[in-house]
Specification:
The chain is mainly β. The protein has one helix and eleven strands.
């Protein structure tokens, strides 16, 4: 059974950092494009960052997080991470990890085939 489990969310002050983890079971993350999406209250879901499978070895970031967030993959642990620095209140939302067999604009920014249940990030003083 393919499963994605996010962890690492929580409450952090503006300017702080968090590292989100996305652990996979039932499949190998390295074969998929992995995207972090987020949904803020009252807003549409957006793709924050994605990492391609090892064939393409590419990463992408939304303009709103470039220079602050870093996505990475640990194949030995079958886990993808999202390091979030210099957090802002507008980064608040539920962060979802998603996997798709294709490497595409769709998979990186709009939609994916497999989803985790999400982890809440709250940036507030």
């Amino acid at each position: 059974q393919l499963q994605l489990v996010e962890s690492g969310g929580g409450l952090v002050q503006p300017g702080g950092s968090l590292r989100l983890s996305c652990a996979a079971s039932g499949f190998t993350l390295d074969d998929y494009t992995i995207t972090w999406f987020r949904q803020a209250p009252g807003k549409e879901r957006e793709g924050v960052s994605c990492i391609s499978n090892s064939k393409w070895d590419s990463t992408h970031y939304a303009d709103s997080v470039k220079g602050r967030f870093t996505i990475s993959r640990d194949n030995a642990k079958n886990t993808v991470y999202l390091q979030m620095n210099s957090l802002k209140p507008e980064d608040t939302g539920v962060y979802y990890c998603a996997a798709d067999p294709d490497y595409s604009v769709r998979a990186c920014y709009y939609e994916a085939t497999y989803w985790g249940k999400g982890t809440l990030v709250t940036v507030s003083s």
